[in-house]
Amino acid sequence: xxxxxxxxxxxxxxxxxxxxxxxxxxxxxxxGHEMWHGQFYTHLLRPDTKTSCxxxxxxxxxxxxxVGDHYEVMVDGTWLPVPPDxxxxxxxxxxxxxxxxxxxxxxxxxxxxxxxxx
Length: 118
Description:
Helix content: 10-25%
Shape: globular
Radius of gyration: 16 Å
Order of helices and strands: HHEEEEEEE
Distance between the termini: 46 Å
Structural class: alpha+beta
Largest sheet: 4 strands, mixed
Number of strands: 7
Strand content: 15-25%
Number of helices: 2
């Protein structure tokens, strides 16, 4: 395979990865779930009910922030406040924010995983 073709394939792959990262950054339902399902999401338990956080598509990577005395996470493109009883006391393998939330009702959270404090 010549160098030009390899470069083109690499650019195409990179563009697909970036598109996936952008959707994951917005916390859209189902985006990025498969990557983490088997190794991380399947064993997460809701702090409030001790039942599973995960329903085959509900958990996904997202972005988050601390605002005053609470955290917020991006869910389906919208910032939502995180109730303390939804925070799982475990860090994700990638050290990032993750959220488990149903597609409906909008605004409901099962679990939130925060980055490690440091």
